[in-house]
Design brief:
The protein starts with a helix and ends with a helix. It has 1 helix and no strands. It is 97% helix and 0% strand. The chain has one domain. With 103 residues, the protein is mainly alpha-helical.
């Protein structure tokens, strides 16, 4: 067996081993990067969900406050109408007495 062919085989073997190590390292790096991206995506999703829940709660509180304000406004309006009706009724009741005095 010639000496050159053995050294060529050893060189090819060493080159193949180096490629396998590089491939394993590249695979490991790619997996680590994918895990980092997945972790970041999960973190951002959790932040987004928390923000959305907070906004929904704020909208719910605002809607409730608006409903309470509308009820209060309706009550004030009803009180005004009742006062106006009572005044009209009192005026109507006083009108026949005034006619009776003049007659």
């Amino acid at each position: 067996m010639p000496r050159g062919s053995r050294s060529d085989a050893e060189a090819r073997f060493a080159k193949t081993q180096a490629r396998q190590r590089e491939a394993a390292k590249a695979m490991s790096d790619a997996e680590a990067e994918a895990k980092r991206v997945d972790d970041n995506t999960q973190r951002l999703k959790a932040l987004r969900m928390a923000r959305d829940a907070k906004l929904a709660e704020a909208a719910s509180v605002a809607a409730e406050e608006k409903a309470v304000a509308a009820e209060a406004k309706a009550a004030v309006k009803a009180d005004k109408l009742a006062a106006k009706a009572a005044k009209a009724k009192k005026k109507a009741a006083a009108a026949p007495k005034a006619k009776a005095k003049t007659a």
